[in-house]
Design brief:
The protein has 493 residues and is of the alpha+beta class. The protein has one domain: Outer membrane efflux proteins (OEP) (Up-down Bundle). The protein is 58% helix and 15% strand. A four-stranded antiparallel beta sheet has the order 4-5-7-8, with no helix packed on it. Strand 7 and strand 8 form a beta hairpin. Helix 3 runs antiparallel to helix 8 and helix 5 packs across helix 7.
Length: 493
């Protein structure tokens, strides 16, 4: 039996400014460099204050968090960069949520697949009835008032199968490509985790360097203070020199308190990104020595990034999926052919029964649905156009990511060399000023100014070294090789 019917188908700041590629523009306060004020008011060293440095940014706060699945341990844990990244790849919230999205996408694919497969169900019925004939109007004439009880038993299997449905087929193909996209997104999320955790680790290393530098400045200013006190007591220098030296010393103590506090806060942020309990004590075992990364060809690097970036591959899969979804919307106009059938055994009991069956073929033709069909097609076309535009933009963004990272590496490399030289010169100038003051040739104003210059130079060196290392890590992310090759880039080989 065939019948015509109308039918329709389906129509998808710190440390945190911390992470993600220089390729996702966002503003965020950086944190790990400090600047010193200009000499003034007698050349007193000014307290350190946060400055803005370029850091990788993240497009989602999920990468800042994690699942904590392991209890803390007694004592202090040694944490290397490799250990931190390995933990991030297990517990980082961004990766966990992306993996769950992949499972959801796979579930959608299986649901679409089922619409193309036969559906078989089985059921068993046992019925017992009595009938009141008088209530049905059968009175007199020898009709009994009640008949029964009587009944039957029925065991039956049912088959439903959409034999021809182009729209469902296209929707399945779209879900298949969307699932492939979600798999690639998980791989891309792993690169994002490496960038997030790696940057968080580098920030803590920079904090450690600032603490060491500031502690050295505290020690140096204490020597100057002792000299000033001694000279004043001996009557060879005025009280002003002692007061100036004491202010310098206390200012450096304030700076040391600040950088130590920031270090502890950044360790908390690192622990949050890798799933460490916040009560767990740990120390960093890796350092970040300066290693140049030379001979970078932007053109070749962009080609490598286009070939490797999983987010680009995921977007390409989404475009293909949107093309199938557009075809599915067009195919809603096509007739569909389906089959419905059952077969079973029915009778008073199974000892006295007989097999029965039914088979029905259905041809569904959509009629008078023009507004809906056009609406579905326009929506699908809009989704396809959006995906194509996003793909084109992503290709341009990847090229910008790579070129920006290379420029940052080159600029930061030059800054490291200049800052290193500047630090050495500032320390030499401080030594000379201290000797002149000790010899009574001058007052300690030059010493105070030299202390400020040393502090600023050390701060610039730490900041430039951090920027250079994080730029190399960002280049690895921009090339799509952060997980597999981050050591090569951070190590500069």
């Amino acid at each position: 039996m065939f019948k015509a019917s109308s039918s329709s188908r389906y129509g998808s700041a710190r440390i945190w400014g911390l992470v993600l590629a220089l390729f996702i523009p966002a503003a965020g306060p950086a944190a790990h460099a400090f600047q010193f004020g200009q000499a003034g008011g007698g050349g007193v060293v000014q307290p350190q204050a946060p400055i803005q440095v370029t850091q990788p940014q993240i497009n989602s706060t999920t990468y800042q968090g994690s699942q904590v699945k392991e209890p803390g341990t007694a004592g202090v844990m040694d944490l290397s960069l490799d250990d931190a990244i390995a933990r991030g790849l297990k517990y980082n919230l961004g990766l966990v949520l992306t993996s769950q999205s992949q499972l959801n996408s796979h579930g959608t694919q299986l649901q679409q697949l089922q619409s193309l497969l036969p559906t078989v169900t089985g059921d068993f019925k046992s019925s017992v009835q009595q009938t009141d004939l008088q209530a049905l109007g059968l009175r007199g004439g020898g009709f009994p008032a009640i008949i029964g009880p009587y009944g039957y038993m029925d065991v039956r299997g049912t088959l439903k199968w959409s034999l021809i449905n182009v729209s469902s087929l296209q929707n399945y193909l779209a879900s298949k490509h969307n699932f492939a996209s979600s798999q690639l997104s998980v791989k891309d999320a792993r690169d994002m985790v490496v960038l997030t955790v790696g940057n968080a680790y580098l920030v803590c290393i920079a904090d450690q360097a600032l603490i060491d530098s500031t502690q050295a400045q505290v020690d140096t200013s204490k020597v100057s203070l002792d000299q000033a006190v001694s000279n004043h007591q001996a009557g060879t220098s005025p009280l002003l020199d002692e007061l100036r030296a004491r202010v310098d010393y206390q200012t450096q103590q304030q700076s040391l308190i600040t950088v130590k506090n920031q270090y502890e806060k950044d360790k908390i942020a690192l622990a949050r990104a890798i799933g460490l309990p916040l009560e767990q004590k740990f120390r960093l075992t890796d350092q970040s020595p300066y290693t140049p990364l030379d001979n970078l060809d932007p053109g070749a690097a962009v080609k490598e990034a286009i070939a490797n970036r999983n987010d680009l591959k995921a977007m390409q899969e989404q475009v293909t999926g949107a093309q199938h979804a557009r075809s599915a919307a067009t195919a809603e106009r096509y007739p569909t052919v389906s089959f419905d059938g059952d077969y079973g055994d029915i009778g008073v009991n199974f000892g006295n029964s007989h097999g029965t069956g039914n088979a029905t073929g259905t041809l569904d033709v959509p009629l008078f649905e023009e507004a809906k069909l056009r609406g579905d097609a326009k929506q699908a076309q809009s989704q396809l156009d959006q995906k194509r535009a996003q793909l084109s933009d992503l290709e341009g963004q990847i090229s910008a990511d790579v070129r920006d990272s290379i420029l940052d590496i080159q600029a930061a490399g030059k800054q490291v060399e200049v800052a290193r030289s500047n630090s050495e010169l500032a320390k030499e100038a401080l030594s000379e000023a201290q000797e002149r003051y000790k010899a009574g040739v001058s007052d300690n104003l030059a010493v105070s100014q030299a202390l400020e210059s040393v502090a600023q130079a050390d701060n610039q060196y730490v900041s430039s070294l951090y920027r250079h290392n994080v730029a190399k890590l960002s280049l690895a992310r921009a090339l799509g090789v952060a997980e597999s090759n981050y050591k090569t880039y951070v190590g500069g080989k």
